Amino acid sequence: MWVTSSTELALTPTCLALGKFDGVHRGHKRVIEPILPTSQNKIRGEWQSGREKEISDISGEGSFTSNSSLSSSHTYSTVVTFNPHPQEYFTGKPRAWLTPMEEKIEELRSLGVEQLVMLPFDKILCTLSPEDFVQRILVEQLQAARISVGEDFRFGSQRRGTVQDLQRIAARYNIPVNIVSLETQEYTQMDDSNRKERISTSLIREVLATGDMERANELLGRPYALVGKVVTGEQIGRTIGFPTANLQIPKDKFLPRKGVYAVRVSILNDISNKYEFHCLGVMNIGSRPTVNGANLSLEVHLLDWAGDLYERTLRVRLEKFLRPEQKFSGLEALKNQIQQDCVNAKIFFGSEL
Ligand SMILES: Cc1cc2nc3c(=O)[nH]c(=O)nc-3n(C[C@H](O)[C@H](O)[C@H](O)COP(=O)(O)O)c2cc1C
Ligand SMILES: Nc1ncnc2c1ncn2[C@@H]1O[C@H](COP(=O)(O)OP(=O)(O)O)[C@@H](O)[C@H]1O
C-alpha cells in the first residue's frame, strides 16, 4: 500500500473513501469495500449517478484484475483521511487512537486498499469551502473517479458540507458518490430487551473503557489488539514462575479498562513481516501496586510457553476481561492469583485447549 501525506505524490486517478476511520471498524469497512479493486465491477451500476456509464469508460474496465497489470488507466483504491485528527487540531489536546497510524496502515492494507492519503489537517485545509475541497483536492489533485462516504461525513470549513452537498458538487465533475448508511448492531440490555446501536468509534471507546471485550470486539469486527515491542522490566516475573513480556506500545494508543485479560498472542516474524506464532495468554494492564510499580505497564504471560521475547514484536488480542488489578499482601498471594487467572483463561478458551 502506498502511503503519503502529499497529494502531489499520490497515485492517480483514484477511487476514494473519505473519513477518519479510527478503529477501521465494521461501519468503516462498509464505506471502504465499494472502492476496493475486487468490488469495482460489482459496484458498477449500483452507484447512484446516472452518468455511471461515462465514468466506467474513463476509469478503464478490467484494469483491477491484478497489481501486475496496473496501467495508466488503473484507478487506485484510496483511503483519504486527516492528520492530525480534526478534534486534536482544534482542541490542541493529543488524542488516543483505537488504531494509531501503524495499525491503521496494517488494517487498511489487509483490506486490500492500495493507497492511503493522509491530508495534513491545517489552517489551509480547514478553511476550504466544500466547493474548493472537492475541486482542488478531490478533483484536481486526486483525480477522483468515484467516492464513497458514510452518511454522517462532513467536510469543508466548519464541517459545513454534508454528503448531499458532496454528491451535488461532485456531480458537476461527473463523479458518482456512494453514500453508505450507518452500520448498526443489535445489543441486549441489562433487562434483556434488545436495542440497535450505531457502530461508531466513540461507542467502541466507551465500551472498551468498561472492559466489555465481547461487545467491543463485535462492534469492531475483530478483537481489539495491542501491538508493541517487548522491553525489559524489573525481572520479578521469572522469580514467581510467571515471566511476563512487557509491551511498549505507541503513546497515542487508546487503552481499555485496567485489569487482567484472557488474550491471544501472535509474534511477528521480522523477516517475513507476518504474525506467525500464535498462542494463548494472560495480560495485565495496570500499575502493579503489589510491587509498588509507578508507571502503567502492559504485561503478558504466554500460557505453557517458554523462550526469549525481548525485542520481538507482539500482537496481543484482548478477548475477555477477567478481573480488576489488585494490591496483594505479597508476591506469594500475587503468584496464586496469577495461577488462577491462567486457569480462568483456559476455561474461557476451553474448546481450543
Ligand atoms: C495475569 C497477570 C495478572 C497480574 N495481576 C496483578 C495484580 O492484580 N496486582 C499487581 O500488583 N500486579 C499484577 N500483575 C503484575 C505483576 O506484579 C508483574 O507481572 C510482576 O511484578 C512481574 O513484573 P516484571 O515484568 O517487572 O518482572 C499481574 C501480571 C499478570 C501477568
Ligand atoms: N511464557 C512466557 N511468557 C512471557 N514471557 C516469557 C515466557 N517465557 C519466557 N519469557 C521471557 O521472559 C521475559 C520476562 O521475564 P520477567 O522476569 O518478567 O522479566 P521482565 O521484567 O524483563 O519482563 C520475557 O520478556 C520473555 O523474554
UniProtKB/TrEMBL annotation:
<keyword id="KW-0547">Nucleotide-binding</keyword>
<protein>
    <recommendedName>
        <fullName>Riboflavin biosynthesis protein</fullName>
        <ecNumber>2.7.1.26</ecNumber>
        <ecNumber>2.7.7.2</ecNumber>
    </recommendedName>
</protein>
<dbReference type="GO" id="GO:0003919">
    <property type="term" value="F:FMN adenylyltransferase activity"/>
</dbReference>
<keyword id="KW-0511">Multifunctional enzyme</keyword>
<keyword id="KW-0288">FMN</keyword>
<keyword id="KW-0808">Transferase</keyword>
<dbReference type="Pfam" id="PF01687">
    <property type="entry name" value="Flavokinase"/>
</dbReference>
<dbReference type="InterPro" id="IPR014729">
    <property type="entry name" value="Rossmann-like_a/b/a_fold"/>
</dbReference>
<keyword id="KW-0067">ATP-binding</keyword>
<dbReference type="InterPro" id="IPR023468">
    <property type="entry name" value="Riboflavin_kinase"/>
</dbReference>
<keyword id="KW-0418">Kinase</keyword>
<dbReference type="GO" id="GO:0009398">
    <property type="term" value="P:FMN biosynthetic process"/>
</dbReference>
<dbReference type="InterPro" id="IPR015864">
    <property type="entry name" value="FAD_synthase"/>
</dbReference>
<comment type="similarity">
    <text>Belongs to the ribF family.</text>
</comment>
<comment type="pathway">
    <text>Cofactor biosynthesis; FAD biosynthesis; FAD from FMN: step 1/1.</text>
</comment>
<comment type="pathway">
    <text>Cofactor biosynthesis; FMN biosynthesis; FMN from riboflavin (ATP route): step 1/1.</text>
</comment>
<dbReference type="GO" id="GO:0009231">
    <property type="term" value="P:riboflavin biosynthetic process"/>
</dbReference>
<dbReference type="GO" id="GO:0008531">
    <property type="term" value="F:riboflavin kinase activity"/>
</dbReference>
<dbReference type="InterPro" id="IPR015865">
    <property type="entry name" value="Riboflavin_kinase_bac/euk"/>
</dbReference>
<dbReference type="InterPro" id="IPR002606">
    <property type="entry name" value="Riboflavin_kinase_bac"/>
</dbReference>
<keyword id="KW-0285">Flavoprotein</keyword>
<keyword id="KW-0274">FAD</keyword>
<feature type="domain" description="Riboflavin kinase">
    <location>
        <begin position="219"/>
        <end position="350"/>
    </location>
</feature>
<dbReference type="InterPro" id="IPR023465">
    <property type="entry name" value="Riboflavin_kinase_dom_sf"/>
</dbReference>
<keyword id="KW-0548">Nucleotidyltransferase</keyword>
<dbReference type="GO" id="GO:0005524">
    <property type="term" value="F:ATP binding"/>
</dbReference>
<dbReference type="Pfam" id="PF06574">
    <property type="entry name" value="FAD_syn"/>
</dbReference>
<dbReference type="GO" id="GO:0006747">
    <property type="term" value="P:FAD biosynthetic process"/>
</dbReference>
